[in-house]
Structure formats: structure tokens, C-alpha cells
Amino acid sequence: MILFLASCGQEEKKATELFNRAEESFKSANYSEAKLQIDSIRNLYPKVFEVRKKAVRLMQQVELEEQKTSLEYLDSMMAVKQAVLDSMKVAFVLEKDTAYQEIGNYFYPSQVVEKNIGRTFLRACVSEKGEMSLTSIYCAGGSLNHTSVKVSSADAFAQTPESPDMYVTSDLGRKIEKADYKVGADGGVVGFIIANKDAKSLKLEFIGDRTYRTVMYSPDIKAIVEVSKLAQVLASMEEIRKEQKEANLKMQFLNKKIAETVIE
72 and 43 in one domain? Predict the structure, then answer.
């Protein structure tokens, strides 16, 4: 019994030493080290209950401070991205009908609808949440029922998969076919265009019941490249928002657990 009690006393002493070091690490904002020491208490001294309880409370405080630090960093990153967005978006047109649209779309000025009536071309847009897409617009006459486009240079090409979003509209009696391709599922077409951004022109094919061939000139190439740049900024901001939301939820949870521990 004496040996057992002595052993328990030694364990409590060692666990307390670890806890004290964890507290010092916490006060020094060395959160990773504090968590390692707390984990050591949990793993090495499962029967030292009082010290383990204090270690659990300290771990909650460590994790709370980590989330606060993370949120401060995310807030600063968002401010930087917002400044970049504010400087970029003046070069784009935002189309958004607030009566039925919660999320608008940015277009490069040369590709807005009113400037391209009756034209067959590949158009780019990006939503306010950073989701970029391409739309192939065909109105060269006759039914094509196209569901894919191919962009090529002299020695390489990229082609979209078949679009699940092909639809037909009309303008002044002229039939217009449109097909949408989300970037990321576009067969690398946007990446190919960016890689060839200095080209004066690229070949453009609309593929359906038959193939219609035309040329993509530098204004459309530039429009897609610029929309892609804006999409990167908007997408990164959306990712930061998600991380901010997660950090706030974790902080709410930890504050609740800490309050419950104090009541106990």
C-alpha cells in the first residue's frame, strides 16, 4: 500500500510539472507546445484525475486562443483581398437583377450582351462568389445543337466535355444556341486560353450534330484571362469567409464548454 501511494504521489507530481509547463507555454502564446504537454498528461497519467481536469480546462482555453488568433489573421487577409477586389472590379460590369438574383455575375465590358448581339463567340463570367463559367454562344444560322467547344493553336488544343446545360433562345427571330461550362469541369479550356494569352487568335470549334469553325481573337482571349484573374480573388475571399465562419462556430462551442466547466 505504501509503495502504491508513493507511486501515485510521484505520478501526480510529474503530471503537475507537465501542467505547470503547459500553463507557461499557454501564457507565452506557444499553443502547440502547450497542447503537446497536455496530451502527455492525458496519455501518461490517466489516473491523476484532478490534474487531468485542469488540463482539459486549459486545453479549452488554448484552443479558444488559437481560434482567436486564426480569426484575426483571416480578418486581416480579408481586408487585403477586399482592397484588391475594389481595385479590380471597376474594370468589370456586374449584372444583377436584385428582384430575383441573390448573386450577380461579373463580365468583361467587351463581352456584355448588348455589345455582342448576333455574334458567335465564347463568353466568360464569374459570380460574386468566385464561380467562373464559360458560355458558348452560337447564332451563325441553322441548328447545330452543340454541346462542346474546342479551342486550338497551331500545335495543341483543349476541349470541354459535353455540357449538361445546353439551351436555345431567340433574338429578333434569330435562333441562338448556348451551352454553359463550369470552370474546373471545362476540360482545361480556360487554362489553355491563359497559356496562349499572347496569341492574336485561336481556332474555335462548336461541336454538335456538325462542327462549326470560327476564330477567337485577342479581345475575347483577354476577356477570359481577365475574368479568370477576378475569379481567383473572389474565390479566395469566399474561402476566407468559410474559414471565418468555422472559426466563429468553434469559438462559440469552446466558450460554451468553458462556461459549463466553470459552473461545475
Answer: yes
- Outline where 129-217 has alpha helix (H): 189-195
Domain that holds residue 175: 95-239
pLDDT of residue 7 exceeding 60, the answer is no
13: its cell numbers: 507530481
Shared-domain flag, residues 43 and 151: no
Average pLDDT over the chain, rounded to an integer: 92
Quick: pLDDT tens for 200-227.
999 999 999 999 999 999 999 999 999 9
Cα–Cα distances (Å) from 196 to 24, 32, 77, 189, 221, in that order, read 56, 46, 31, 11, 8
Pairing state between β 148-152 and 157-159: antiparallel
**Which run of H or E residues covers position 9?**
helix 2-27
**Hunting for cell 481595385 — which residue is that?**
87
CA distance 223 to 203: 16
Same domain, 81 and 105: no
Q: Do 78 and 145 have their domain in common? A: no
Q: How confident is the model at residue 9 (pLDDT cuts 50, 70, 90)?
A: low
Q: What is the pLDDT of residue 64?
A: 95
